[in-house]
Every structure is written in C-alpha cells, then in structure tokens.
Amino acid sequence: MISLRHVSTTFPAARGKDPIHAVDDVSLEIPRGSIQGIIGFSGAGKSTLLRNINLLERPTSGEVRVGGTELTGLGGEALRRARHQIGMIFQGFNLVNNLTVAQNVELSLKFAGERDRRVRRERAAEALEIVDITEKAKVYPAQLSGGQKQRVAIARALATRPEVLLCDEPTSALDPFTTATVLQYLADVNRELGITVVIVTHEMEVIKALADHVAVMESGRVVEQFHAAELRREGFAPRTSIGRYLVSDGISVDRRGGGVRAGSEPSAADQGADPGADQGADQGPGADPPASGREPRTASGLVAATASSEGGPR
Ligand SMILES: Nc1ncnc2c1ncn2[C@@H]1O[C@H](COP(=O)(O)OP(=O)(O)OP(=O)(O)O)[C@@H](O)[C@H]1O
C-alpha cells in the first residue's frame, strides 16, 4: 500500500559542515490497513521519513508510492490531489486558534478543494463524531485540553476520508492517560475505517500498544524491522538497543549503583552500538506483570484502568 524504494533525503550543508543525510537509502513496504511504528533516537530521521511519505519533504532520491500512485512522479495539482488520500497529525496539534473546532475541520476540506459549504459542514460533523468530540464543535482550540485538541486534529485529518494517516509524535505532549485515549481512537480508526496508520514516536509504550510492524531507525537508515507480535514471543532477541528496550520491562534503574541495565534508556554512547552481552533480552515478554496496586504500563491497560477526563473512547 505504501512503498518506499531507496528513499534518501539529504539536507544541504551549513557553512563549513557536511550535508545531513537525514534519510539514507530506506526501502520499506507498509501493508494496507496495518499500523506501522517507526522508532529511533532523536535525529535518526524518523520525522523526515514520515514527511517523505506525503512529500511534505520531497526525497532527494528514491520512489514513494501510496496506493499504487507514485507520488515522487507527481507535481503541482496532481500531487495536491493525491495528497488528499494522506492525513497527518502532529505533536503540537497545529490547530488554527482563531477558528472554532468545526471551522478547523472544515478548513482542511476547503484546502482539499471541496467547494460546497454544506458538504464541508456535513463531512466535518461526521469526522468530529468519529472521535466523539461533536459537543466541542463550536468552541475554540484554547478551550480544549491537549487530548481534545489531538482528537480534533485527528478529525481534521479524517475529514478528507484519507486512506493513510501519518502521525508524528502524536502523544508526546500528552499525559499517559490521555495518551491511552488518543491511541484507542487511532486503533479504532484503523480497524473501523481500514486506514493505514504510520506512527513516529520515541515512546516505547505507544509502539507496544499500537503497532503491527516496527521499523527501527538509526542515522537515517532502517536498521531493524519486525512484527510487533514478536515482542511477545519468548526468546525474541532484537539486534538494536531500541529493539531490546522494547522487549524489556521498561526503564530500570539500579539504585544500588550497579549501572545501566537492559531495560534502561540507552545512553548516547549506546546509539548504534553493537549488542553488548550485558544488554541481552533478558527481561522478555514473560517478565513479571506489575504488582497489584501499581499503575498499568500499557496504553490499553491505562484505558482499562482509568475513567479518563477526556470522556474516553467508544
Ligand atoms: N529542514 C531541515 N534542514 C536541515 N536539517 C534538517 C532538517 N530537518 C531535519 N534535519 C536534520 O535531519 C536529521 C534527522 O532529523 P529528523 O527530525 O528527521 O529526526 P527524528 O528522528 O525525527 O528526530 P526527533 O525524534 O528529535 O524529532 C537531524 O540531524 C536534523 O537536524
């Protein structure tokens, strides 16, 4: 459905510096209707790769196909039209503050070339209903919580009835409870509308909760790929430190002074380093569940555990 072939994006050199190979010869196939997670350290090229998919950042070389259309072969009006099949949401929500919620959603339809105001209103109302935020249609973004803003952003992205939803750190600005709610909506949108979701995040829990497939990026390259189901298979041993973190039990700090352990956030020195013997997947998916009374760590656990102030997913 989404096919990236030998995609590279190089940013020109600043004075006296080398060019930045933000994305370096990435080939990736993302099946229709799946949820693809892209994870990696800061600066690995995740956002650039995501923006390569809708050509918000046109690759320097390589081919991007979405639903059979080669976007990299298009320009002007043809590219604008093809982009309507791709919605996008961002960490900062990117809502227009002096427009109401409904007007924000209608605006995306206007940009998509929908001239009939009545149709814009109907489609906006439909999109707001999908994320259960119809009652906020007439309020301004400043009157919304972060989670509500992101739900409006999802509605705005869905209004043009896209086949693909690109998510750039969609929950990084949200607390864990609100994160769980937003992830549940993304899961619903994927399952009920069949929308292919590509999500860039540095939040491991988001990947674990939502993704079908995982791609790990380092220095502009996809260095490891696996099915998310592998994360639950005993003995699964990813090669990268991020992969190993995913199968670990999360952050683990030795307060007795024993140093960094497998589940801990890798230090900068770990980035791209070969697996060390002390960083094996020794805390696999069979690790002990949280003791009773502790907060659940997965998004779905959080959904179950909390009656969110956001009103919660359907
Ligand atoms: N418009 C740009 N001009 C120049 N360099 C850029 C531009 N956009 C990104 N870069 C550089 O490209 C590299 C990859 O950036 P990118 O934002 O894709 O990484 P990332 O993995 O998403 O990082 P983060 O998790 O911090 O957002 C970085 O070195 C960044 O500084």
From TrEMBL:
Q: Which Gene3D superfamilies match?
A: P-loop containing nucleotide triphosphate hydrolases
InterPro entries assigned to the protein according to its UniProt record, in alphabetical order: AAA+_ATPase, ABC_transporter-like_ATP-bd, ABC_transporter-like_CS, MetN_ABC_transporter-like, P-loop_NTPase
According to the UniProt record, where is the region Disordered? 257-314
In Swiss-Prot or TrEMBL terms, this protein is called D-methionine transport system ATP-binding protein
- State the source organism's domain of life: Bacteria
Could you state one GO biological process linked to this protein? amino acid transport
Any Pfam family: ABC_tran
Listed Low complexity bias regions: 266-293
Q: Which SUPFAM superfamilies match?
A: P-loop containing nucleoside triphosphate hydrolases
ABC transporter domain location:
2-244
Q: Which GO terms describe its molecular function?
A: ATP binding; ATP hydrolysis activity
Q: What keywords are assigned to this protein?
A: Amino-acid transport, ATP-binding, Cell membrane, Membrane, Nucleotide-binding, Translocase, Transport
| Organism the protein comes from | Nesterenkonia xinjiangensis
